[in-house]
Specification:
about 120 residues; mainly alpha; 5 helices
């Protein structure tokens, strides 16, 4: 139980730290947020928990393919906000569009025989 609390605490502290840094400097916050910290932590925790290189490989490969559709969020959100659309509506729409892009990517990868 203590191990899980440590994992939660480290992960949470990183996210909070990045959001606090972004308050002071959006550029520095963006640099830190663009580093795939969640993916790195997930890979790190998975390795510690399993020592299974095949699982690490599968996770890293899946993350690679799913980063591409996740970029839709960062394209849509600023466009919607610049159009003057309410923040919460812009967030919801950007998330929905991103989910649609994930679905499309999975279909495309399946068509080419790539299994995530």
């Amino acid at each position: 139980m203590g191990y899980y609390l440590v994992k939660i605490a480290i992960t949470t502290l990183l996210i909070v730290a990045i959001s606090e840094i972004a308050k002071r400097s959006s550029f520095t916050g963006a640099i830190l947020a663009s580093i795939p910290l969640i993916s790195v932590l997930a890979i790190f925790w998975l390795y510690i928990d399993t020592k299974d290189i095949d699982k690490i490989n599968a996770l890293a490969t899946s993350v690679f393919w799913l980063v591409i559709p996740s970029l839709a969020f960062f394209l849509c959100l600023p466009i919607l906000l610049n159009l003057g659309i309410n923040f919460y509506i812009s967030m919801a729409a950007s998330i929905c569009i991103t989910v649609g892009c994930y679905f499309l990517m999975v279909v495309i990868l399946d068509y080419f025989g790539i299994v995530l």
